[in-house]
Amino acid sequence: MRISTPLRVLCYAELLFSILFLSVSRAHAQEPLVIGIDHIPVVVTDLETAQADYRAMGFAIKPGRFHADGIRNAHVKFPDGTEIELITAPSAVDALTEEYRAKMESGEGPVYFGLYAPDPAAVLARFRARRVEAQNDNGMLGFSAASPLHPLFLSQRNKAPTDKPEHFAHQNSAERLSALWVRD
């Protein structure tokens, strides 16, 4: 489903307002509900080529793990917990891999954006109080494919026990993902 540009702008404006509201509304009492970027999944058609391209730009690459649905990935990890996830789906076997395959047909690039929410249950409660439909998948909050918020998900940070110092040692001195620009 293609959303018209004015509606998309309105949806993104509502999204930004919601994120800002979630981020500052509890600031006086405790930590904000949404802290910032968690990670950006970037769909690629050839994972090995993408890894070589990112290495050529000075990024260290952490190999991914096996996924039951056939997804293959690799990570550009930063010391603050943010990351870029290079991801490919060799075949469409479920809704997620179907979506990745569809995105790959129109080109490579970011497909979703993840925000860091230390307490997903509190975010979900806030969404429900405002009648925003969100799905909770083991602490990762997402939105249905029909929602204009579908590209967004919120989750806690996952520090992997397999992370090593060399995964964060980028030759280009990058330390974090600090901003995300969304365009039509």
TrEMBL record:
The record's section on Gene3D superfamilies has: 2,3-Dihydroxybiphenyl 1,2-Dioxygenase, domain 1 (3.10.180.10)
Location of the Glyoxalase-like domain = 37-150
The record's annotation in SUPFAM superfamilies points to:
Glyoxalase/Bleomycin resistance protein/Dihydroxybiphenyl dioxygenase
The record, for Pfam families, names:
Glyoxalase_3
Protein name, as recorded: VOC family protein
Source species of the chain? Candidatus Acidiferrum panamense
